[in-house]
Amino acid sequence: MDRADLLNNVRVVLSHTSHPGNIGAAARAMKTMGLSRLVLINPKQFPDPQADAMSAGATDILEQAQVCATLDEALQGCVLVAGMSARVRDISQEVLPPREAVALLTEQAMTQSVALLFGTEMSGLTNEEAARCQVLVRIPCNPDYSSLNLAAAVQLLSYEMRLAAGLGDCGAPALQPAPVEQVERLFEHMESTLVEIGFLNHKHPTKLMHKLRRLYARARLEQEEINILRGILTVTQEYHANKHKVTK
Amino acid sequence: MDRADLLNNVRVVLSHTSHPGNIGAAARAMKTMGLSRLVLINPKQFPDPQADAMSAGATDILEQAQVCATLDEALQGCVLVAGMSARVRDISQEVLPPREAVALLTEQAMTQSVALLFGTEMSGLTNEEAARCQVLVRIPCNPDYSSLNLAAAVQLLSYEMRLAAGLGDCGAPALQPAPVEQVERLFEHMESTLVEIGFLNHKHPTKLMHKLRRLYARARLEQEEINILRGILTVTQEYHANKHKVTK
Fold first, then answer.
1. CATH number of the domain enclosing A10
2. Is B86 an 8 Å CB contact of chain A?
3. C-alpha to C-alpha distance for A164 and A35, rounded to whole angstroms
4. How many domains does chain B contain in total?
5. pLDDT bracket for residue A200 (50, 70, 90)
6. B-chain residues within 8 Å CB-CB of A90?
7. Is residue B46 part of a domain?
8. Which domain holds residue B130?
9. Do residue A243 and residue A151 come from a single domain?
10. Which of A29, A171, A56 lies closest to B19, judged by CA?
């Protein structure tokens, strides 16, 4: 199974959302992470121009959104439902942080439909909705200020979902460190140059060379960088030799 | 050092932000995760009522925000600067996903100031700004739609920062599974009740009891749940005994 397909088995269900702008912002957040199945239970206003505006081009998600009258309809066919909960409830299902909850969801989403259920902006899930979830998810946050907005919560969960689906590569080229023998030739060149220009004492170069080794070890030099540094050393040697010739 | 103090060593630097609403939303995102040091380089409009409105009560962050004219001023004293970059650049520093970049930042933030640098909404960091960062951070995202808004990016990085600081506990009460001997007494009670009511054959109860064991093993029963189930079994036995008496 393609990992992007796994994300197609994940429904984001928003219950009784008050502000259409939040629906649009949630769609945008989903799309950035490769989620596409948005389900709305009795949204106050939808479709709405504010939703379109806040979706910033994720209008395809809004157009394909399923609008439902009931929770039953929204969750039909799902085998695992994780509900977002900011409140501490007297009796509740297992409460997990996002990363752990998403690991469970992803495992099921390989073959079946799962849902992330979000309550209203003001009061979150009702007790009846929370009771329908197998797990509740609580985002770790500042105990004195836990006011994440709806789209921000959708963004965080969608991000964790993308990472759990194995799509967390940020596409950056990996560093290509040069082989050790190239690095050694640089240090030889550096040492001889520093002796030539009189910065190093030919008899005791060890300590300073060790410090330079420490610096460049941390940088893990690439071949091109070695070429640049050796180019500078070569020009320094030539400049010094010429200067020496002139002053003689 | 207190872990919340570590977050005080992390500056969120927003460069040349166009929309004051985004500054407010970024402040809100920071505060939910316990970050507080906001630095603004030449914001287009600030302070601004839109920033206050979008901060949803995180106005303390806005009031304490430092407004600077230059990048030098904003980064003064920082020992590590991580810049957000959505673009692939020809030549660039090491590019890391958020989790890895934040691990580096947190390590330094134990003792010194570090910065997360965000560019403008439209075009991100300039090449000059990117060159001033020791690492670039790229959020993994849908290759066909990577349009995270500024506050969403601040939210994700602040969340990863909170987790890396060891403040990722979501405050949920841990499950308290009952000791095995209590679970065994439940199974004995269950088996005898199911035999009494005629659901189980006294001679071959094994297979079904194994299936019930499997179910309840997965649930990891707590003591109170065992009490409830045994209460139901006791009432079932009594009901069956009475019914049996009446029908005789």
1. 3.40.1280.10
2. no
3. 13
4. 2
5. confident
6. none
7. yes
8. 3-164
9. no
10. A56
